[in-house]
Amino acid sequence: MIRIHCLHAHPSNISYIEDVFQRTAFDLHHIVDSSFMERAKQDPAFDLHHQQTYAINRLMQEREADLILLTCTQYIAALGDQQHLFKQPIVSIDEPLFEQVCKRKGPLQLVFSNPDTVEGTMHRLYTYAQERGKQVEAEILVLEDVFHLCLNGDMQAYHERIMEQLRQSVKQQHGEICVMQLSMVHAAQQVGQETGVPIIHPLSPLKSFVHQKIIAAKE
Predict the structure, then answer these.
(1) I need a labelling partner for 211 at 20 to 30 A (CA). Which of 66, 82, 93, 203 fits?
(2) Dihedral angle of Cα 71, 73, 77, 80, to the nearest 10 degrees
(3) Given pLDDT bands bounded at 50, 70 and 90, which one contains residue 24?
(4) What's the CA gap between 1 and 90, in Å, rounded?
(5) Angle, helix 206-218 to helix 95-103, in steps of 10 degrees
(6) Could you give the angle at the alpha carbon of 174 between the alpha carbons of 171 and 176, nearest 5°?
């Protein structure tokens, strides 16, 4: 059985990953590392270099994993391009999403609820697109004063705020809509069902992407 170790910064992400890989042959193991985010926000000495060292050392502990899945975008940014240090493939939650975004033509609205993740995510997206000779035409929408609801565990209020904005975005017809964070998936799915307008989200391409990585690693 294939062992996938999933590293999260917040326990709320676990259910999303469990939903994607239910009825598969994967054996999921979840690790929640909230200390990384706390230090990144509160400790000025915990700069990018120290964050990268921390991330590498933490992931080195997952020796039994056949694949490591990272759902925390700031953790992903800290690791950078150091995946070559590991024997098993490391998949960041936004990598398959980037691949899907790069295939789109025409205007695209990228929606964030956590302002702290915007700069790092967009830098990785533009780098990813440039390396593949693609151009991303995107409008960035950052929802202010919303993510604290998620961190405080008030998920109902969080989802309602996200859905309110997504409904508005659908009405304004700014092109395709993509939510950039895992915590926004349920809201995106619900608004998509209500309106009949599909909303791209990080889980859409994840299962097939992980399958491809595991097959490639065995070859």
Answers:
(1) 82
(2) 30
(3) confident
(4) 18
(5) 110
(6) 100
Helix (H) / strand (E) element for 7: namely strand 2-8
Least Cα distance to 132 among 101, 175, 93, 86 occurs for: 101
Q: Kindly give, in sequence order, each residue whose CB lies less than 8 Å from that of residue 131, ignoring residues fewer than 6 positions away.
A: none
Both tokens of 55, joined, read 């991330």
Which ranges constitute the DSSP H helices of 71-205? 73-79, 95-103, 118-131, 147-151, 155-172, 185-195
For 10, 44, 69, 131, 176, the CA distances from 38, given in Å and listed in that order, are 11, 11, 20, 32, 34
Measured distance CA(69)–CA(89) in Å, rounded = 9
Model confidence at 219: pLDDT above 80: no
Q: For residue 35, is pLDDT > 90? A: no
Q: Kindly list the distances between the CA atom of residue 56 and the CA atoms of 62, 82, 95, in Å, as whole numbers in the listed order.
A: 10, 8, 18
- Lowest mean per-residue pLDDT among 15-19, 102-106, 178-182: 102-106
Q: Would you state the pLDDT for residue 175?
A: 81
CA distances from 148 to 94, 145, 161, 188 (A): 21, 7, 12, 19
Q: Which of 152, 145, 162, 158 is nearest to 201 (CA)?
A: 162
State the pTM of this model. Answer: 0.86
The number of residues making up the chain comes to: 219
Contacts of 123 (CB under 8 A, 6+ apart): 77
